[in-house]
Amino acid sequence: MSDKLVIPARRGKAVIVNAGQSIQVINTYGSQVVDAWIYNLHDLNEFQSNEHTRPTLLKLSFEPGDSLYTNKRRAIAEVEQDTSPGVHDMLMSACDTYRYELLGCTEYHDNCTDNLHSGLKELGFESNETPSPINIFMNIPWTQNGSLSYEPPVTQPGDYVQFRALMDCIFVFSACPQDILPTNGIRGEIKDAHFQVL
Amino acid sequence: MSDKLVIPARRGKAVIVNAGQSIQVINTYGSQVVDAWIYNLHDLNEFQSNEHTRPTLLKLSFEPGDSLYTNKRRAIAEVEQDTSPGVHDMLMSACDTYRYELLGCTEYHDNCTDNLHSGLKELGFESNETPSPINIFMNIPWTQNGSLSYEPPVTQPGDYVQFRALMDCIFVFSACPQDILPTNGIRGEIKDAHFQVL
């Protein structure tokens, strides 16, 4: 088991997880959304894809026992455990500079899209795509008529989700810097999160 | 107004629609799903993106009056009219060779992903991405607990959706060749659809 490693507040972090290893993503302070992407270590043109996962799961989100699928429809990781209330999002794109401009920012705002690419770069990788992320701990409820809203996380400090890699993977995380919407709690405080490879 | 042009059953077709022009996508025989993509004519790295549209619309699908947004969060088209019951899908990826292999096909099966790229190629364009499509007339109901299912379309012959281009666009359509699931009706009969530029 590795030490707990930090996903610094507002920043991205990537880690290689080999087939058969598990990784816990920990909401250390209880209110932090962690955007996550999973790439095939040996072919970064293959990556976890929400729109390819939904046709197989026939679900809007995931729960323990579910696998997550790539854009080539192969299972890349399995959800092994979830100690949180199980509220996660697979609908919303990663935040980006365009998003923060529309939200009124006139200067650069940290964002999950840039964090994905800087996290990959730190490990020497590059991706031309920004797949739609798994927004772990993010609370985007839907209604029967299809309305969506941004709500504060319902997690507690220490809640974690554990994934098992089904192929050699790169997991990339971003401690989402969204401090304008209630994505990371109504106070918009952005915190560190952690992960641990088992 | 152009003539009605065919989207041949099982095939893709692309068309340039300039800013301010409108285009009707017509379910001629009443049961045919039409996958659709919209690219910025002047920069194919910008395209309509479901995961970037949802954060702005705060909806799982669209209705008249809504705009559709690109991966750069710009409005690329507006939904002007919808004479169908308004059941469309923005959750499921385009079908592809991997999908049909998993559904048991041992030989090549026509698919919307290949149709996207062949449609573009016929006009001399190329895209490295397969964005998550707008699946016009596709019936993927969701439940309050997040379950999804593939159901037959609820459209009538001649139902159409009309979009107005907000920038110079390439619209690409695929008359979805899914004949294994009830996507195109319980009999799995794949039909022509049509479009008309106004």
Structure, described:
Chain A has helices at 50-57, 97-102, 112-122, and strands spanning 5-7, 12-17, 22-27, 34-40, 43-47, 67-69, 75-82, 134-136, 159-165, 169-175, 193-197. In chain A, β6 and β7 (75-82) form a beta hairpin. Chain A is globular and about 40 Å long. Chain A has a six-stranded antiparallel sheet. In chain A, strands 2, 4, 5, 8 and 10 form a five-stranded antiparallel sheet that branches. Chain A has one domain (5-197). Chain A is α+β, with helices and mostly antiparallel strands and 198 residues long. The A-B interface holds A 49-52, 54-55, 58-61, 71-74, 91-93, 96, 98-99, 102, 128-130, 132, 142-144, 146-149 and B 49-52, 54-55, 58-61, 71-74, 91-93, 96, 98-99, 102, 128-130, 132, 142-144, 146-149.
The coarse overall form of chain A would be globular
Structural class of chain A: alpha+beta
Distance between the termini of chain A: 4 Å
> What's the number of domains of chain A?
1
What would the keywords be for this entry?
homodimer, 198 residues, alpha+beta, 6-stranded antiparallel beta sheet, 5-stranded antiparallel beta sheet, 13% helix
